[in-house]
Amino acid sequence: MYGEVANKLVQNAKRTQALAHLPPYQTEMVRAVTREVRDLDKDIKQILDPFQGSFNPSSEPATAAALLVNHLCMRRNKRCLLAYHRVRSDKLEEMCWNGIDVLERTQQQQANSGSGEGAGAMGVDGNTSSLSPEEEEYVRQYSDLLAAYKGQWTDIDLTGSLEPPKDLFIDVRVLKDAGEIQTEYGAITLTKNSQFYVRQGDVERLIAQGYLQRLS
Amino acid sequence: MDIDDILAEVTADAIPQEQKDLQQLTRSWVAERVAPELLAWPEELMERVLERIRKQIELVEDQTGNMDPKTNFKLIIIQTELERFKFLVRSFLRARLKKIDQHALHYKQQHEASQTTSTPLLSPNEYQYLTAHEALLSTHYTSSFLSQFPANLQRLDDTTGGVSMVDKPDEDAAVFVRALKDVGQIFVEGTEKKFEIRRGDVYVVRWSAIRRWVELGDLELI
User: Fold this and answer.
1) A152 vs B84, B125, B156: nearest CB
2) Among A134, A177, A184, B71, which one has the highest count of C-beta atoms within 10 angstroms of its own C-beta?
3) Full-model pTM
């Protein structure tokens, strides 16, 4: 009671900031905090009930204090929940920007969760996805939004590298077969372990997706 | 007007528009990355820059078939320049988006207030993004937990209880500035500090104290 669970959620969010991946969504805790808020609200109503709307704080300092504490706790819980969800959605947005397909990744995790760490994450309802259904929906809509916004800047490629470009052409090594790509200098077939000297703008996506490695 | 001003005017006219734009773009880019607050959207500058990028891309596409070593070499220089321009614009836009995401509601209010002035804070695209993102986030919060809250606690821009829920950027953060013109006396609010900034000086000052001159272009952030 009085903000303990919410505190745990915030700690969880703080930890999340430092992690590369997204830890499982704490459905239970979120529910517990919302329940707490509702209970507190009920308490307030109960306390206020006998006064019939004519409550005077200065004549009943003790009751007023109780009400204040309940109110503040509710507000605090709300802030904690908002913070927790914000940290997670920020993280998801970052993944969208980096071109990581979050939904696909969670499905992969579900696929390999037969052994080891997957077993630990097996939630109450057997759902191994680390996202809540609401978050999945959010990711889907945010990627649409991002794609729409990016579409207005076709010449710039907003998700491109934020490192200042030094050379027009770079050396890359192919880590995974990526098939044939079209460049302004003709088509190149990217087969594993081969090395190319190509224009950076042409292969940036592939580097980000892990098909190519940049050689310095 | 003294001799420096006259000289400055003469040299400013001698620089071609393209070069001035690059200088301005670089300046806006640095300023946007350093300033704690979002700065007004440089509409005309961006239009010119984007137009030029588009033209250069067309030129490059036109001439890539050409295997003549001379034009080929020229193309490489153009492409390198193009990549650099694209980087500047991209980084600039991303810096703005980051700030917009961080203090969405605050900038929404500010933008709506600035819409009637000649320099709106956001570009139409950015405003669209902001509102769409804001709507997404609040539906996300609502469906995740807010819908189960008591009705008087469901708002996201509550100001009761003495604390505003709308987060603001830190306007008192310190920034480095260089003076492009004589600015005169600067008075830092809340302190006893007063000092004079002359052309060429570099200072570390609170953003809130010198914001006005940065917007005028008398100071540049570094």
Assistant:
1) B125
2) A134
3) 0.79
